[in-house]
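Chain A, query sequence.
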Amino acid sequence: MSDEPRHLSEFLKEGPLSRVLRESERRRLETARIRKLLPAEEAAHVVSAATNEAGELVLVMDTPSWAARVRYCLNALPGGDVKIRVVPRSA
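Chain A, predicted structure.
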């Protein structure tokens, strides 16, 4: 093993960090796709959107009030199983 310093980009291309980077990009793209399907006001409050292992779409909203509003837009989203979560308040 070399004592030569490695660039961060090397760690992001291989090994466990590469899986994290790929998952992060997948979630970023899925969030962007879901935001395009929602009305602009609701889309602006989507923190994250991702499909879980069970195949459900999980939307994470920034506040409970916007979570409630986005429930009225579920017919614009693909699939039938959608879970809506809210980012927990910080202490």
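The beta strands are 46-51, 57-61, 82-86. Helices lie at 8-13, 16-37, 40-43, 64-71.
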